[in-house]
Amino acid sequence: MMEGSGSAPRRASLELLRAEATDELSSLVHERLRDGEDPWDFMEDLPTVDELVVLTLRAENIAANGGVKPNAARHYRVLRQISFDYPQLTPAVWRLLGEPNTHRRWDAVVHIDAQ
């Protein structure tokens, strides 16, 4: 279970979470291609499937906690708990906990929320 007063239970198998994330990323890529964007300009900016799963689980934890964005300590605990609940996501969790200012625009948003 996730930490916090509004703990969210494990909601699904990792396989299902990855399938949902794959569908979401596919939709996102399709939408951007339809808008005429060059995939060379945006593919590197997108999260991996596992990173998207971690971000989704993190968002569910925030929603279960009344929408209160976590401070840095809680952000770390939430992501650490995700890696405990889903050990295969540990590399993605550590990437998201790593460098605060990567080349990907959304990375900065995740880390700014946690300050």
Model description:
- 63% of the residues lie in helices and 0% in strands.
- The chain has one domain.
- The protein has 115 residues and is an all-alpha fold.
- The chain contains 6 helices and no strands.
- The N terminus is likely disordered.
What low-confidence regions span 5 or more consecutive residues with pLDDT below 50?
1-8
Number of strands: 0
Rg result: 14 Å
Question: What share of the residues lie within helices?
Answer: 55-70%
SS-based class: mainly alpha
Overall mean pLDDT = 82
Q: Quickly count the domains.
A: 1
The biggest sheet, with number of strands, parallel, antiparallel or mixed sense and barrel status, is: none
